[in-house]
Design goal:
This protein has 338 residues and is of the alpha/beta class. The longest helix has 18 residues. The protein starts with 20 loop residues before the first helix and ends with a helix.
C-alpha cells in the first residue's frame, strides 16, 4: 500500500520575527544603553565653550563647563567621561613638561568634575602629544621616539592624574612596556584602585585628524630630525591583525584592567578577535574622524543622522564591546532615554 507523500516542511519565514516593534525588541541580540557610553570631552584653560570647526557640535569646555557636563552625564546615566586637554601653544615644549603639572587644566578639571558628580568615573589620556610642540606622543631623540624616556614622562603624568582623583588611566602612546611600569608606579604610590584601560591596539590612522584640531596638536613633520613626519614607528600598521593580539596580550600581562581598540568602526574585526581571545573588558573608540563623517553627512542631508549614530554605536555592541568612547555620548543617551 503506497503512502501519501509527506506534507512539505512548513516554510521558515524569518520575517515573522521582524513584523512588529515588540517582536524586534524581544529577539534583539545586541542592546545599547547609556551605561555602554564613555563621553569623549576636550577641556581648555580659558572660559566658556569654544567650537571645534571640524567637529560640528563638539566644543572645548572650560573647567567650570566640564563640571556642569559631569552633572549632565550623571543625569543621563553615562557612567564615565574621557577627558582630553587643549593647551595654549605658548606652554608647549619638546618634552611636554606641562603633562605632569599638578595645577594644570587636567588636574583642575578632574577635581571639578568629581566634586560636581562623584558617581561619574573620570578617565584620563596618558600621552604627551597635547603638550609637545611637535605633536608626537613621546620624547624625540635623533629623529626617533625614545621609548624608555617617554615612559618616564608618562609615569609622572599618570601619577599626577591619579593623585588628582582620576579613576582610569588610559595610556595611548603605544610605547612598549608602559602599562607594566605605570602599574608598578601606581601600586608604589598607594593608588591600588586606579584602573588602567590601555590603548592596546592603536593604529596609525587617518581618522584622527579632527582630534588634532580639537586639542591644538603640533604639526607633524615640520622639523627634520626634531619632528618625524608621522607616527608609524609606534602606532600600529592598519594592515595587521595578529600584531594586535600580541599587543593586547602584553598589556594584559603587564596589568591592564581593560583594553581598547582605536579607531572604532573600521576595526570591528580587531574588536571581535580581541573579545574572543581574551576574557577582559574590551572597548573601542569612535574617533574624531568617524564622528566628523557622520555629522557632516547628516548636516548635508545625505543620511538620517540620528539613525546613523545609533546604528554605528550598536555595531560596537554587536562586535562584543563592553562599551564605546564617543563624542556622541550625550546625544545618544538622550535618544536612548526618549
Amino acid at each position: 500500500m503506497s503512502r501519501a507523500p509527506l506534507a512539505p516542511y512548513p516554510a521558515l519565514r524569518l520575517r515573522r520575527l521582524r513584523q512588529a516593534d515588540w517582536t524586534r525588541r524581544l529577539v534583539r541580540e545586541s542592546v545599547l544603553t547609556p551605561s555602554d557610553l564613555i563621553w569623549a570631552m576636550v577641556v581648555h584653560e580659558g572660559e566658556g565653550r569654544i567650537a571645534v570647526p571640524s567637529m560640528p557640535g563638539v566644543e572645548r569646555l572650560s573647567v567650570k563647563e566640564a563640571a556642569g557636563a559631569a552633572r549632565e552625564a550623571e543625569l543621563l546615566g553615562i557612567p564615565a567621561i574621557a577627558v582630553f586637554p587643549h593647551i595654549d601653544g605658548a606652554g608647549k615644549d619638546a618634552a611636554g613638561a606641562l603633562a605632569a603639572d599638578p595645577d594644570g587644566v587636567i588636574a583642575r578639571a578632574i577635581k571639578a568634575m568629581k566634586d560636581a558628580a562623584p558617581g561619574v568615573g573620570i578617565m584620563c589620556d596618558v600621552a604627551l602629544d597635547p603638550f609637545t610642540d611637535h605633536g608626537h606622543d613621546g620624547v624625540i631623540e635623533n629623529g626617533r621616539i625614545h621609548n624608555d624616556a617617554t615612559i618616564d614622562r608618562l609615569v609622572e603624568q599618570g601619577l599626577m592624574q591619579a593623585r588628582a582623583g582620576c579613576d582610569i588611566l588610559a595610556p595611548s602612546d603605544m610605547m612598549d612596556g608602559r602599562v607594566g611600569v605605570l602599574r608598578r608606579a601606581l601600586e608604589a604610590d598607594g593608588h591600588t584602585d586606579v584602573m588602567i584601560m590601555s590603548y592596546a591596539a592603536k593604529y596609525a590612522s587617518a581618522f584622527y585628524g579632527p582630534y588634532r584640531e580639537a586639542i591644538g596638536s603640533g604639526k607633524l613633520g615640520g622639523g627634520g630630525l626634531a619632528n618625524p613626519p608621522d607616527k608609524k614607528t609606534y602606532q600600529m600598521d592598519p594592515a595587521n591583525t595578529e600584531e594586535a593580539l600580541r599587543e593586547v596580550a602584553l598589556d594584559i600581562a603587564e596589568g591592564a584592567d581593560m583594553v581598547m581598540v582605536k579607531p572604532g568602526l573600521p576595526y570591528l574585526d580587531i574588536v571581535r578577535r580581541v573579545v574572543e581571545a581574551f576574557a577582559v573588558p574590551t572597548f573601542a573608540f569612535q574617533v574624531s574622524g568617524e564622528y566628523a563623517m557622520i555629522r557632516a553627512a547628516g548636516l548635508n542631508g545625505w543620511i538620517d543622522e540620528e539613525r546613523a549614530v545609533m546604528e554605528s554605536l550598536t555595531a560596537f555592541k554587536r562586535a562584543g564591546c563592553a562599551g564605546v568612547i564617543t563624542y556622541f555620548a550625550p546625544r545618544a543617551a538622550r535618544l536612548l532615554g526618549a
